[in-house]
């Protein structure tokens, strides 16, 4: 007998109103003035490489700050908050804890990354970051949800990695890849299991600039669901998928148009597909419109706050009123079901976006089968 699929509460919400996803963790962390010593704490005090750009590590060394950021985004009106795990795989964490062989005449290749995948310290660290970050989100999503009487959701954030399966870094060897599909899949499986263990409601494969990397993440999710009994128990977590595009509307490394990208991932039957990061909302509009026309699931959009600007307080051009105006326009034009912000978007930006889309009709979409 085939079990009837249970609909996730967020799916029902997306048909009724536009939901709001949070803003930029990295941007907001910078407003706290953290220094190298703050991210190291006692635990990583003796690390030989700089760690300040490893923002995921703050979930372990400065949990009060990370929880405060989650709280602020929730109180700003976010329905969905993301775990602080954009780079929380053994592969990405190795950039901060393993010497680069290229500095000693070697190269990064599948043999190097197999050692990374097998490294117990890196695997344990990746698990700890993902599990802790999910638990931090879970605590505050439930706390604010109970206080406000409005359910909030935790999205386990799965970022794009620091390696590419689509491109060769060697101009003289187009077929060379630094890492294999199975190695990437294995790293993602470790991350997915920890995000689920920590209490995530959803899995968000985001900022996709290399579709093959994303495919490895999606295969990893599928294998975790099958191996851990989620399929048998009809308890699979919904999947959200979000790509980053350049000025021509193509994913940055795999160079797929939005339609081609959708064709590559639609078999997953995600809860939503969308665009994030990228160019800022004004330049993103035509590509979002194309995706909204082609895809038959919910559409998400959380752009950067314009283009980078080192003279801006947030490092990006657009303030809260600007983002509210653009995302409100997307809503007026019937393009979105989920709205929010990526780089440069603080809790103040999210509050303005939440107010701008409040009461506006969501884009109509088919219920997942």
List the keywords.
8-stranded parallel sheet, 369 residues, single chain, alpha/beta, 15 helices, TIM Barrel
How is this fold's topology laid out?
Blueprint: H1 9-16, E1 19-20, H2 25-30, H3 36-40, H4 58-61, H5 63-75, E2 80-82, H6 90-97, H7 110-118, H8 120-148, E3 153-158, H9 181-197, E4 202-208, H10 211-227, H11 230-233, E5 239-243, H12 258-265, E6 272-277, H13 281-294, E7 298-303, H14 320-332, E8 338-339, H15 347-357
Parallel strand pairs: 1-8, 2-3, 3-4, 4-5, 5-6, 6-7, 7-8
Helix pairs in contact: 5-8, 5-15, 6-8, 8-9, 9-10, 14-15
Q: What does this protein look like?
A:
- The chain has an 8-stranded parallel sheet with strand order 1-8-7-6-5-4-3-2.
- It has one domain (9-88, 138-160, 200-357): Homocysteine-binding-like domain (TIM Barrel), CATH 3.20.20.330.
- It is built from 15 helices and 8 strands.
- The relative contact order is 0.14.
- With 369 residues, the protein is α/β, with parallel strands linked by helices.
């Amino acid at each position: 007998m085939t079990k009837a699929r249970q609909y996730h509460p967020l799916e029902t919400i997306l048909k009724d109103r536009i939901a709001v996803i949070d803003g930029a963790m990295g941007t907001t962390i910078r407003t706290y003035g953290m220094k190298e010593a703050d991210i190291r704490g006692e635990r990583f005090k003796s690390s030989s490489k700089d760690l300040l750009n490893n923002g995921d590590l703050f979930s372990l060394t400065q949990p009060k700050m990370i929880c405060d950021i989650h709280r602020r985004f929730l109180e700003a009106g976010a329905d969905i908050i993301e775990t602080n795990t954009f780079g929380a795989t053994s592969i990405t964490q190795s950039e901060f804890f393993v010497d680069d062989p290229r500095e000693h005449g070697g190269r990064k290749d599948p043999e190097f990354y197999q050692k990374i995948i097998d490294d117990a310290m890196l695997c344990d660290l990746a698990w700890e970051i993902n599990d802790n970050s999910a638990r931090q989100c879970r605590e505050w999503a439930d706390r604010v949800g109970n206080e406000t009487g409005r359910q909030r959701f935790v999205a386990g954030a799965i970022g794009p990695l620091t390696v590419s399966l689509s491109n060769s870094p060697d101009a003289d060897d187009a077929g060379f890849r630094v890492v294999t599909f199975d190695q990437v899949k294995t790293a993602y499986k470790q991350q997915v299991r920890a995000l689920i263990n920590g209490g995530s409601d959803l899995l968000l494969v985001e900022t996709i600039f290399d579709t093959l990397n994303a495919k490895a993440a999606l295969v990893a999710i599928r294998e975790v669901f099958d191996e851990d009994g989620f399929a048998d128990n009809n308890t699979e977590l919904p999947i959200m998928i979000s790509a980053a595009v350049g000025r021509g509307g193509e994913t940055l490394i795999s160079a797929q148009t939005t339609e081609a990208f959708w064709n590559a991932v639609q078999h997953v039957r995600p809860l939503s597909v969308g665009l994030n990061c990228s160019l800022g909302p004004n330049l993103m509009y035509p590509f979002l419109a194309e995706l909204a026309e082609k895809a038959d699931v919910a559409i998400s959009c959380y752009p950067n706050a314009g283009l980078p600007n080192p003279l801006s307080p947030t490092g990006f051009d657009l303030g809260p009123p600007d983002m509210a105006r653009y995302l409100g326009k997307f809503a007026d034009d019937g393009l979105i079901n989920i709205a929010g912000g990526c780089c440069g978007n603080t809790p103040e930006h999210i509050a303005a976006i939440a107010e701008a889309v409040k009461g506006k009709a969501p884009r109509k979409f088919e219920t997942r089968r």
